TrEMBL record:
This is 4-hydroxy-3-methylbut-2-enyl diphosphate reductase. Pathway: Isoprenoid biosynthesis; isopentenyl diphosphate biosynthesis via DXP pathway; isopentenyl diphosphate from 1-deoxy-D-xylulose 5-phosphate: step 6/6; Isoprenoid biosynthesis; dimethylallyl diphosphate biosynthesis; dimethylallyl diphosphate from (2E)-4-hydroxy-3-methylbutenyl diphosphate: step 1/1. GO terms for molecular function: 4 iron, 4 sulfur cluster binding; 4-hydroxy-3-methylbut-2-enyl diphosphate reductase activity; metal ion binding. It comes from Parafannyhessea umbonata. The active site is at E126. NCBIfam families: ispH_lytB. It holds the Pfam family LYTB. InterPro entries: LytB/IspH. (2E)-4-hydroxy-3-methylbut-2-enyl diphosphate binds at H42, H74, H124, T161, S217, N219, S261. Binds 1 [4Fe-4S] cluster per subunit.
Amino acid sequence: MPTIEVAREAGACYGVNRALDLVRDAAAQAKGPIHTLGPLIHNPTVVASLADAGVTVASEPDEYRGGTLVLRTHGVTPDEEARARDAADSVLDATCPFVVRAHRAAETLTREGYQVLVFGEAGHPEVMGTLGHAPGATVVERPEDADELKLRRKVGIVVQTTQSRARLAELVRRLLGRTDEVRVMDTICEATSARQAAAAELAARVDAMVVIGGRMSANTRRLAQICADACARTHHIETAAELDPAWFAGVGAIGVTAGASTPQAQIDGVVDAIRRLTGATCVDAPAPGEKDGAQP
Ligand code: SF4
């Protein structure tokens, strides 16, 4: 009989749970209309449930006058925040504290005269927000992109929270020797790196992997890539309705992981659906070290 194992680190992180609590509390108090500036998190199921609670999405800080405007977990530029405070009666700041840390790092490097590189996905809301805190900074999407850059004598790096440390190390390697100083502000979020490590470890041991999370979610897409590198039968889904029984034909061990914007209830729903499709039983993830035969 097949087994299902959920990665020991998976699903909603501190920043997402904090943002959801803030917005749900505000909606429950019902003091007027509530809008989020862009989707609160990259999870269509959660955004739809917030809409059911009366929380709508604004595409611009001043799209609505009055009411409460929520700044999303990915953060905003100083200009967007100023426009929000001007337009709304009140602003609820749900920016993840780890993203705020990246903003502060970008400001420090700019103030101290570094050529600032933001290592992340161009156009991603978090990267756009960080750029707003470092005027003149350059986005570097891939380590090899740095080969083409004309470097000044002092180069500073701020990292999108969802990047992997291996890719950051590769970027630094490509800069060393071409400038006098490379200063790294390691703003990678530990929740992200822990989920990536657990996903890679699980994907290497199972026959099929299911990765749950929004297709617009940068950290979920990176998890799916990491799993696909270790397990050819990796499938990225947003909801249980996308599961295909053919994915599990002849499979012994099924692994499940989820991005940092996926609440536990959504993971439980997908696991239940896989059980119904395959008759699989759930097994617990081994304690750290147990899989290697290490002694407690
Ligand atoms: S993944 Fe990290 S940076 Fe992003 S919201 Fe969660 S805790 Fe914050």
